[in-house]
């Protein structure tokens, strides 16, 4: 972690940080404006999430990430742009979804380039699983969107199959989004990128 990232984590956490130990979140109390909330799970270094929050001031964003240098980086960038529509959990998304996010409260969940875990014996470590889709669904408002992107074709197939088997989601038009850091790496390696979007039925 760079000194700047470490400093950001210390100095900016009170302004941007959320704690799962505080339990169920009061979304209205957390943001200046009461407006739609999108959650991003696994934002990495966070540049694309900061970009989205800056581009869409009419929407609130919550990032969830476990990689501390990435969180420090995002805090620095958010502060540099004076963002007031972005908050962050530095914790496992499964715990945050379970304990902090109220039912039917979220307009969108986005997961860009989750770790692909290519080896068969590691597939159980993939974030996108039936149980995980079960966890997200009740937190979405009716019509709320789940948007996933991957540069690993077998994982794209896996995600499609899991979503097709899930009665709670129907397919949706893929929205635009900024390019992510991990995506640029995949494109440089010659990978194709797949975006998949569904809505809560
Ligand atoms: C391959 S990286 C992609 C990062 C970023 N979305 C991008 O496209 O550049 C996957 C990220 O997911 C995060 N991650 C993995 N499991 C997670 C979990 N259970 N909760 C929150 N973040 C998680 C990792 O720390 C990592 O930063």
Which key phrases capture this entry?
8-stranded mixed beta sheet; binds S-adenosylmethionine; alpha/beta; Rossmann fold; 201 residues
Describe this structure in words.
The protein is α/β, with parallel strands linked by helices and 201 residues long. The protein has a single domain (3-200), classed as Vaccinia Virus protein VP39 (Rossmann fold, 3-Layer(aba) Sandwich), CATH 3.40.50. It is built from 8 helices and 8 strands; from the N terminus they run H-E-H-E-H-E-H-E-H-E-H-E-H-E-H-E. An 8-stranded mixed β-sheet has the order 1-4-3-2-5-6-8-7. Helix 1 (3-16) packs across helix 4. Bound molecules: S-adenosylmethionine (SAM).
How would you briefly describe this protein structure?
With 201 residues, this protein is an alpha/beta fold. It has eight helices and eight strands. Bound molecules: S-adenosylmethionine (SAM).
